Amino acid sequence: MRLVILGLPGSGKGTQGIRISEDFGIPQISTGDILRQAVKEGTELGRKAGRYMEQGQLVPDDLMVELVVQRLAKEDCRAGFILDGFPRTIHQAETLDALLKEKDMVLDAVLKLQVSDEAVIRRLSHRRLCSRCGADYNLLTKPPKEEGICDHCSGGLYQREDDREETIAQRLQVYHRQTKPLEAYYRDSGALSIFDAEKDVEEVSANIKGVLKSLSTTQLAQGPTSSG
Ligand code: AP5
Predict the structure, then answer these.
(1) Distance 222 CA to ligand 1 centre (A)
(2) According to the model, what pLDDT value does residue 216 have?
(3) 2-222 is classed in which CATH architecture?
């Protein structure tokens, strides 16, 4: 199954991507995670991308396309993949379509997680992450037992550089200007499924799973195809 998860920053792409990956045994590819790792390691990609990320701007398309082409060529993507955070521009979407077409493949579904700007600001400004194990906390809805300390590994909690209020506002603007047009692009292609992502994590997950299960059942009934 080949999937794209689309949605505002903080709509839950990462949270739901991990769950789909566990349920369906296909890798979740978060371009944001790959870039943050590159920044941490100080690679050339990280140096180029870091200054855009800090400001809540998109990293240039040429860098992103190269990164995704390399990642999708890996063996673990043969049975499918979940793209979380890519594409984010029409150019990226067209490049992905062309890349899949070359291999006689198509996207099976584009999952749009629908949330309001207000929910995003609330979620992201209160998000904290463990510097050691990466566990996700939210000071409003999922606080750690001890302030600033991870419940699982006692690592220190930190706030993502781009989760400061002024950068969240910038990321929202960038989405509305550069990424929102993808919703119409995928609606026209018939691949778009929209989910109310203001619901509780479990409920959103169950709704997505229901749609994907019926999709994989249909594919099995149709027999092996290039889109499976
Ligand atoms: P990226 O890491 O992709 O950031 P983002 O899209 O802004 O997404 P987030 O990771 O903040 O949120 P999410 O939607 O994954 O939500 P999550 O599950 O974490 O990109 C970062 C930067 O990299 C970009 O700004 C850009 O510079 C660059 N970049 C990346 N890809 C690029 C591309 N293709 N082209 C150009 N540049 C690119 O959840 C968020 C919080 O909400 C968590 O605390 C979670 O616990 C909570 N939460 C989740 N679901 C729920 C729920 N249902 N109810 C309540 N809380 C919830």
Answers:
(1) 35
(2) 78
(3) 3-Layer(aba) Sandwich (3.40)
